[in-house]
């Protein structure tokens, strides 16, 4: 009727009810016809989609009236889209959808399995062992750390609690502790620190040694074959390269291998034991910085090449973190009384709990760092906790000064200066540039009576420790790397090795210059000339002789 | 993350070991509400916590009617009293990029750029002010950098109206599980940089109301995000490796999502070596 397009003259001027034609009452018939025309237009099917506007509007209005959303006019376009999209959803189909087995369901199964009690023998054993169990009270530790804002959600902590309980029932374990969680790219690691019962450990070692021996035998056979082949051909000059002596790893139960570590990706998955760490792995781990992927068999591609796969790298980092950040309040641990010289070269590596421990007040624990001590031996430059002199040459390793380890590389000197290196107080820790090694805070300033002292490490971000009365613990949540304010610069490749020793017989002499050549030529000519004169004299002399003879 | 979903959200990002103590959680519930009242924000986000050597900064952001407008940022040392931070300028960001090391924990601490002193001391005597930077300014610049680089939202969570302003999408029901594992379903919540560089074919598939931001797919270096399913596969957690400590969570098929930063406020420049 009126102008509908914006470009037509008079658009917008005629409001419904005020159009100039309204006073004319149209015929009922023509009105009906107009309505029917409009309806026919709306019922027109679209050539593209087969829908028609009439049905679509009907469905939309039905949906709006059913659901009654607020401010429907603002989301009308979305409602329209939803109605159109609903067309494509099958309502009744002869084919039934197979129930999707989402991976979430499987994971839920595993987590539920944690909560099931082992049947039969499990119940009886529980009654016997309720008194003493190596299981740590993970929830209590989590509570204290939560006061500082550190820690996993309660759900996850409880799952880890149950997973540790499973670990203890499977392996013969004397002490167990939740060490922490290391994040990775694809999956994370949950780590438990464990000590075997004496005697049980030997069985496990024997199994491992058999496996490694078999591996070595195979290597031996392969090497022999290569040597046979070489003897047939001309032997190339043998290299005079002697690799530096391999420093043996420390025995299980001592030094860096004092504890055994089990890891799993998620509580509910089986625990995997990490292999013991070798000094070469620790030395190399200090030079590289790599994220963990979450798979223990992943290769570690780096320079210098890491001797091992991710399981070894993980174990090396755990060893470094433990050596640097496991602390306890002073006096909690003490050395067992021994008869003997205190000036032994080998530092004492065993300690026991002090039955007369008096906990210091929280304020003091926070203010002075000397009220905390390290109770894990530090790792020397060599990669071991106890220095071992490699057999052939005396290595110069102790002389190398490095920025990293805060402890003594020369145990003899510092042992006498500062107390025993094992229980050294934190005030001896070096900071990085102008940052102290530890940040100490009470867990709350508002309620000091029940606060706990919380320490965060600045050298290993993610390492925390708390102390509250007689309770204390350490934990690690992080990516597993040390903090360095400078960017990581990877080690440069070593200089190219000389192929052969240089000596006079293979060194090239320098070519003579032009002047030298000319001088040499002149000298030669002189010599020739001198030679000719002599010959002439000799000839004359000979001729004279001949003449004389005649 | 939204102030209203703080308790639930903190539970979901706790996989990284960082969180807030019960004391802070309790006080944030009320102090963020009061922030909303005092500054007349429409939404208040708890941005996270930057750990300094001697103290920590707790950061909150307030949003106005246009969610994509520059946000007001506030910081607090104890989650009770908040101070407004000045908006970030390019010079601040450029200066802050040269600073290395941890935050001190004291907002009035002044950094001295001692490296330049030895070489160009004469030339810079006139520009003496440039040598000093206050920690507050460094804080502002760092938050701006982090938001710009790694502040993310799921695709479809925000809509751009024809007038240009950005609102939450009321019809957003959450990403499906398969979509949630892909990096292309997440956008940087900041001015898009790469959008114009897409080919015409790609642009034709985009919906201008929802796809008006850069997705995470083409982030450099590749692999700078980790996508993990936690809590038995019920939560998708994205962690940034460029700014260690930024965690984004989303529960698929629900409206719950958010990101929070718990860290030291330092960029991880060693990332290419570590991957």
From TrEMBL, chain A:
Keywords, comma-separated and alphabetical: Cell projection, Cilium, Cytoplasm, Cytoskeleton
Chief localisation class: cytoplasm
UniProt keyword annotation of Cytoplasm present: yes
Region of interest (Disordered), ranges: 197-250, 394-428, 488-550
Gene Ontology cellular component annotations, sorted alphabetically: radial spoke
Keyword Cytoplasm: yes
Any single biological process term in GO: cilium movement involved in cell motility
Cellular localization per UniProt: Cytoplasm, Cytoskeleton, Cilium axoneme
InterPro entries: Radial_spoke (IPR006802)
Compositional bias annotation for Acidic residues: 199-232, 395-415, 531-550
Biased composition (Low complexity): 520-530
CDD domains in alphabetical order: DD_CrRSP4-like
Lineage: superkingdom: Eukaryota
Gene name, Swiss-Prot/TrEMBL: Rsph4a
Protein name: RSH4A protein
TrEMBL record, chain B:
BP-aspect Gene Ontology terms: axoneme assembly; cilium movement involved in cell motility; motile cilium assembly
GO CC, alphabetical: axoneme; kinocilium
Localisation: Cell projection, Kinocilium; Cytoplasm, Cytoskeleton, Flagellum axoneme
Bilayer-crossing regions: none
Lineage top rank: taxon: Eukaryota
Keyword hit for Cytoplasm: yes
Principal location: other
Keywords from the UniProt entry: Cell projection, Cilium, Cilium biogenesis/degradation, Cytoplasm, Cytoskeleton, Flagellum
Annotated family: Belongs to the flagellar radial spoke RSP9 family.
PANTHER family reported for this sequence: MITOCHONDRIAL RIBOSOMAL PROTEIN S18, RADIAL SPOKE HEAD PROTEIN 9 HOMOLOG
Descriptive protein name: Radial spoke head protein 9 homolog
Species whose genome carries this gene: Pampusana beccarii (Western bronze ground-dove)
Top-level taxonomy: Eukaryota, Metazoa, Chordata, Craniata, Vertebrata
């Amino acid at each position: 009727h009126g102008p509908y397009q914006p470009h037509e003259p008079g658009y917008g001027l005629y409001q419904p009810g005020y159009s100039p034609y309204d006073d004319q009452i149209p015929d009922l018939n023509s009105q009906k016809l107009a309505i029917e025309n409009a309806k026919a237009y709306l019922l027109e099917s679209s050539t593209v989609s087969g829908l028609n506007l009439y049905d679509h509007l009907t469905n939309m209005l039905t949906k709006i009236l059913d659901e009654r959303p607020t401010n429907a006019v603002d989301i009308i376009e979305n409602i329209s889209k939803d109605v159109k999209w609903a067309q494509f959803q099958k309502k009744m189909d002869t084919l039934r959808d197979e129930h999707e087995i989402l991976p979430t369901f499987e994971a839920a199964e595993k987590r539920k399995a944690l909560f099931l009690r082992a049947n039969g023998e499990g119940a009886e054993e529980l009654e016997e062992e309720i008194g003493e169990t190596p299981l740590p009270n993970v929830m209590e530790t989590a509570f204290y750390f939560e006061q500082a804002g550190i820690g996993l959600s309660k759900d996850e902590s409880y799952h880890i609690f149950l997973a540790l309980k499973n670990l203890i029932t499977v392996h013969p374990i004397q002490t167990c502790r939740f060490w922490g969680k290391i994040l990775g790219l694809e999956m994370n690691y949950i780590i438990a620190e464990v000590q075997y019962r004496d005697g049980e450990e030997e069985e496990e070692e024997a199994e491992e040694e058999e496996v490694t021996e078999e591996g070595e035998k195979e290597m031996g056979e392969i090497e022999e074959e290569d040597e046979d082949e070489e003897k047939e051909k001309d032997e190339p000059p043998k290299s005079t390269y002697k690799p530096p002596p391999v420093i043996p790893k420390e025995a299980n139960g001592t030094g860096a291998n004092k504890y055994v570590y089990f890891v799993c990706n998620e509580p509910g998955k089986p625990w995997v034991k990490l292999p013991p760490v070798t000094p070469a792995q620790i030395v190399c781990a200090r030079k590289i910085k790599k994220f963990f992927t979450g798979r223990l068999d992943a290769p570690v591609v780096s320079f210098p090449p890491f001797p091992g796969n991710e399981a070894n790298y993980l174990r090396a980092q755990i060893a470094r973190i433990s050596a640097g950040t496991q602390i306890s309040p002073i006096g909690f641990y003490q050395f067992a009384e021994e008869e003997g010289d205190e000036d032994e070269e080998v530092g004492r590596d065993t300690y026991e709990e002090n039955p007369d421990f008096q906990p210091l007040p929280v304020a003091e624990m926070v203010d002075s760092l000397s009220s905390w001590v390290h109770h894990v031996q530090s790792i020397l430059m060599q990669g071991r906790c106890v220095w071992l002199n490699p057999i052939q040459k005396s290595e110069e390793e102790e002389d190398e000064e490095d920025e990293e380890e805060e402890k003594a590389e020369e145990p003899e000197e510092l042992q006498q200066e500062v107390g025993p290196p094992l229980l050294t107080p934190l005030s001896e820790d070096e900071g990085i540039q102008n940052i102290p090694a530890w940040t100490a805070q009470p867990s709350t300033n508002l309620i000091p009576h029940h606060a706990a002292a919380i320490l965060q490490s600045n050298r290993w971000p993610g390492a925390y420790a708390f102390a509250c009365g007689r309770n204390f613990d350490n934990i690690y949540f992080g990516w597993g790397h040390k903090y360095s304010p400078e960017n990581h610069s990877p080690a440069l490749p070593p200089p190219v090795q000389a192929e052969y020793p240089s000596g006079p017989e293979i060194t090239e002499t320098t070519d003579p210059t032009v002047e030298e050549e000319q001088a040499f030529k002149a000298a030669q000519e002189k010599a020739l000339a001198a030679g000719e004169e002599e010959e002439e004299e000799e000839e004359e002399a000979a001729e004279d002789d001949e003449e004389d003879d005649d | 993350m939204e102030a209203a979903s703080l308790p639930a959200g903190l539970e979901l990002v706790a996989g990284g070991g960082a969180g807030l103590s019960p004391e802070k959680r309790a006080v944030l519930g009320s102090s963020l509400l009061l922030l909303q009242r005092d500054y007349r924000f429409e939404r208040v986000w708890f941005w996270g916590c930057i750990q300094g050597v001697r103290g920590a900064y707790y950061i909150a952001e307030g949003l106005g009617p246009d969610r994509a407008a520059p946000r007001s940022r506030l910081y607090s040392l104890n989650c009770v009293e908040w101070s407004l931070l000045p908006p970030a300028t390019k010079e601040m960001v450029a200066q802050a990029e040269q600073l290395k090391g941890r935050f001190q924990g004291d907002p009035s601490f002044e950094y001295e750029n001692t490296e330049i002193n030895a070489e160009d001391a004469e030339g810079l005597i006139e520009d003496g002010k440039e040598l000093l930077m206050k920690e507050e300014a460094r804080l502002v610049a760092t938050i701006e950098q982090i938001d710009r680089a790694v502040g993310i939202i799921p695709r479809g969570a925000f809509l751009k109206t024809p007038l240009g302003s950005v609102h939450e999408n009321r019809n957003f029901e959450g990403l499906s599980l398969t979509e949630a594992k892909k990096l292309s379903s997440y956008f940087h919540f900041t001015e898009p940089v790469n959008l114009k560089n897409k080919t015409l074919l790609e642009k034709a598939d985009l919906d201008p109301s929802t796809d008006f931001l850069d997705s995470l797919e083409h982030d450099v270096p590749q692999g700078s995000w980790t996508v993990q399913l936690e809590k038995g596969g019920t939560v998708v957690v994205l962690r940034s490796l460029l700014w260690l400590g930024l965690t984004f969570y989303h529960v698929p098929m629900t409206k719950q999502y958010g990101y929070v930063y718990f860290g030291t406020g330092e960029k991880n420049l060693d990332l290419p070596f570590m991957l």
